[in-house]
Amino acid sequence: MGERKLKISDVARDAGLHRNTVTLLYQETATRIDLDAIDALCHYFGITVGELLEFIENPK
To answer: Could you read off the pLDDT of 32-51 as tens digits, one per residue?
Structure first.
């Protein structure tokens, strides 16, 4: 979103998601995400799940 200079509200509206869902993902504070939301975002941005999500191991 930052690279494309998109607003959270525009992405939420266009992807058919709740604004809070997009906000939590954008701020990287989401603790869980619905598969329908992942699908909607991948479709909206034209990307794969691997391009949307990144696994970062918790430091011990």
So the answer is: 999 999 999 999 999 999 99
Amino acid at 1: M
In a domain, 2, yes or no: no
First to last CA, the chain: 31
Please list, in sequence order, all residues whose beta carbon lies within 8 angstroms of the beta carbon of residue 15, skipping any fewer than 6 positions away: 22, 40, 41, 43, 44
Q: How far apart are CA 16 and CA 42, in angstroms?
A: 12
Cα–Cα dist 58/55, whole Å: 9
> Is residue 55 situated within a structural domain?
no
Q: How confident is the model at residue 55 (pLDDT cuts 50, 70, 90)?
A: confident
Nearest to 4 by CA among 55, 47, 35: 47
